[in-house]
Amino acid sequence: MTSGGGPTLFGIDVLWVATILAAVATAAVFFAIYAAVTVRDPMAKRVKALNERREQLKAGITASTTKKRAKLVQQNDTTDRMRNMLASMQVLQDTQVKEAQQKLAQAGIRSKDMAFVIIFSRLVLPIILGGGAALAIYGFNYLSDWSDLKRFGVFAGAAIAGYKGADIYVNNLIAKRTDLIRKGLPDAIDLLVICAEAGLTVDSAFARVSKELGSAYPELADEFSLTSIELGFLTERRQAFENLAYRVNLDHIKGVVTTMIQTEKYGTPLASSLRVLSAEFRNDRMMRAEEKAARLPAIMTIPLIMFILPTLFIVILGPAACSISDAML
User: 284: which of 26, 30, 77, 265 lies 20 to 30 Å off by Cα?
Assistant: First the structure.
């Protein structure tokens, strides 16, 4: 159909949509050029975070009073305002803050103040997105040709997306980071075994393994480097291992932490214990690969039916159908 403003498809101006798509494509090209030109060092951010953690541990040791210790901690005015606002509204709970801080640590975000940003977004984003959707739908009569149920569904979806958006983003970061750590853990345990048999201490072994795995598995190397720093500064070495399990949402890491704590406590041979763990992790990784391979036939069924078989039928039966049609004519 066509109207005075231009051709339309399902009531949408085709030229307007084409203009938007062209603008998006142009922006994507400029972004790709910018990303290719401005190449950043992936290790810079990691080294900066580790240095900040080292300075925090030094501050905790050298500062004798709470006031001195507070001066060494960098304050963020924006997060302070958010925290004060949440506290004044009496919606800030300690358990909620601790849970948000743990999820941020598992996602690789070291700043604990970001927990207040997550909690604040749960309160503000539903109002912004839901209020904007309500204003557009009911105030400006947008989507007037839709039914009332569909319009309310759009409003409810915007409000729910505002409330769960930050959590979904953080959970996605946690899942990706955990999967990357799981892939590199067997190799890291093998290197720890080699370091232990070579006579290195535990903190030196963690530092050496993190250095060797820095390019292949940067997420795991980051956690091992942080553990090595904490082993050198914390008064209780057990706390350093527990912090590793706190920052990584992975059962295999908890097994490593338990082994390290028992080794520190009872003096059992570290190399033999880690060798057993390495074999278990490699068997688990092999089982995961076999499980994915076993799912392939079922996954390939849908594209096989939708794309491959119709093309095959056309190629095989097409000439015969043409010959039959010519013979009947």
Answer: 265
> What is the per-residue DSSP string for 241-282?
HHHHHHH---HHHHHHHHHHHHHHHH---HHHHHHHHHHHHH
Using CA atoms, how far apart are residues 237 and 242, in angstroms rounded to an integer? Answer: 9
AA identity, residue 300 = M
Tens-digit pLDDT profile for residues 111-155: 888 888 888 888 888 899 888 888 888 888 887 888 888 888 988
Taking alpha carbons only, the member of 201, 232, 227 closest to residue 213 is 227
**Other beta carbons within 10 Å of 196:** 20
This prediction has a pTM of 0.69
Instruction: Give yes or no for a contact between 253 and 106, defined as CB atoms under 8 angstroms apart.
Output: no
Report which of 47, 288, 43 is spatially closest to residue 182, judged by C-alpha positions: 288
SS3 of residue 13 by DSSP: strand
Cβ atoms 93, 63 nearer than 8 A: no
Query: What DSSP line would sit under 175-237, residue for residue?
Result: HHHHHHHHHHHHHHHHHHHHHHHTT--HHHHHHHHHHHTTTT-HHHHHHHHHHHHHHHH-S-H
**If you ran DSSP here, which 8-state letter would residue 107 be given?**
T
Q: Which residues contact 155 (CB under 8 A, 6 or more apart)?
A: 130, 133, 134, 137, 138
Per DSSP, the three-state class of 144 is coil
Q: String of b and e for 133-168 (b: at least 16 CB within 10 Å)? A: bbebbeeeeeeeeeeeeebeebbeebbeebbeebee
Residue 8: strand pairing partners = 13
Output the six-digit token pair for 64.
């004798």
DSSP 41: P
State pLDDT tens for residues 255-296.
889 888 888 888 778 888 888 888 888 888 888 888 888 888
What is the C-alpha to C-alpha distance for residues 244 and 209, in angstroms, rounded to an integer?
Answer: 15
Range of 33-37, 57-61, 122-126 with top mean pLDDT: 122-126
